[in-house]
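Bumping my old thread because nobody answered last time. Still need a sequence for this structure:
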């Protein structure tokens, strides 16, 4: 459904140029739900705009829904839907009229446009709002209308640029319910950017992480977390000499780079804590190290980004939103305060 090779976009700016996307290679099969993650300025929107034919690439190729984005942009646009970051509706028409007008723009005949508007109002649970003006809708309702507008011509592939950003948790859950229903009912291929790591983790079957215009990770959330971040085991022992011995044993299991000591706490990163913890506890016991507490934590997608770049995607306020990504490498090994999941 999407086949991009070496897709690149350079913007000229006053003091030179910005390489927003540097050689994007991606293949997305029909029916997949792909979450595209990355810090602010990583190149997500620019990639989406090129894949949707809204922005010509500086170099590279992309075939989307069977059409080339450069030589046949109209063919691409007829087959895809695009829900941008900004609202797609105007202020003055009523909701249903917005949908009918959009359908007419895509060439549907009058009767068919009305029929499709009603169908899509039902699909997005917008029927009770059909005669309201978009300006009077709540943020979540308005976002549903944006998605409805993107779907009016029954695209095989829908691009969504941050569909849930700025919404309260309930509205975000509601938007996701509709996105997943769409996929279940119509098998629509979905390619979306999101700032919410937990959403990408739990909803998308494939996660693609972009940083500085390049894809740095691509796979299922489970595989990325297992391969690139790993589970954490945290134990506490009674004294610092005991911690030093526990760390030595941990290094035999996990390797030297995967173990940190903080006072009487020892943390190690392993591919599967369920298998490694019993082995570790047995080794500690046979070496005479007394363990106070032991716990395991699953990694997050933020841990994956951290393992790859040394930076955190997460804002410090704990919302799970992506941060600006401009901070330097975090000191994750020597600090005294560790969030769950830190090594
Ligand atoms: N029209 C433009 N002119 C100059 N630079 C641009 C333009 N559009 C984007 N950029 C730059 O390209 C880089 C990538 O921007 P892009 O909007 O694709 O990032 P993003 O990952 O979508 O970020 P965000 O999460 O903030 O939406 C940034 O450095 C941005 O400033």
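Sorry it took so long. Here it is:
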């Amino acid at each position: 459904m999407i086949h991009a090779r070496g897709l690149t976009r350079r913007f000229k700016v006053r003091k030179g140029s910005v390489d927003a996307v540097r050689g994007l290679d991606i293949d997305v099969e029909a029916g997949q739900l792909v979450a595209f993650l990355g810090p602010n300025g990583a190149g997500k929107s620019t990639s989406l705009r090129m894949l949707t034919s809204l922005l010509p690439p500086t170099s590279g190729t992309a075939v989307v829904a069977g059409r080339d984005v450069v030589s046949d942009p109209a063919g691409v646009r007829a087959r895809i839907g695009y829900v941008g970051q900004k609202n797609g509706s105007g202020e003055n028409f009523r909701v249903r009229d917005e949908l009918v007008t959009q359908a007419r723009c895509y060439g549907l005949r009058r009767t068919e446009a009305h029929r499709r508007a009603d169908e899509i109002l039902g699909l997005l649970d917008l029927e009770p709002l059909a005669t309201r003006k978009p300006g009077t809708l709540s943020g979540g309702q308005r976002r549903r209308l944006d998605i409805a507008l993107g779907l009016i011509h029954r695209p095989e592939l829908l691009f969504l640029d941050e569909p849930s950003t700025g919404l309260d948790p309930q509205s975000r859950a509601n938007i996701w319910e509709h996105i997943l229903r769409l996929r279940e009912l119509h098998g629509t291929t979905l390619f979306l950017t999101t700032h919410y790591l937990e959403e990408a983790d739990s909803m998308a079957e494939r996660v693609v992480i972009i940083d500085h215009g390049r894809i740095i990770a691509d796979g299922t959330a489970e595989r990325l977390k297992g391969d690139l971040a790993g589970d954490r085991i945290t134990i506490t022992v009674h004294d610092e000499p005991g911690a030093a011995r526990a760390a030595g044993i941990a290094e035999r299991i996990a390797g030297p780079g995967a173990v940190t000591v903080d006072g009487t706490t020892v943390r190690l990163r392993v591919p599967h804590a369920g298998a490694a913890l019993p082995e570790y506890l047995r080794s500690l016991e046979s070496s005479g190290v007394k363990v106070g507490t032991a716990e395991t934590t699953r990694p997050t997608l933020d841990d994956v980004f951290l393992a790859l770049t040394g930076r955190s995607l997460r804002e410090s306020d704990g919302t799970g939103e992506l941060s600006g990504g401009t901070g330097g490498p975090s000191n994750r090994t020597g600090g005294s305060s560790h969030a769950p999941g830190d090594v």
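The chain has two domains: 2-224, 231-298. Let me know if any region looks off to you.
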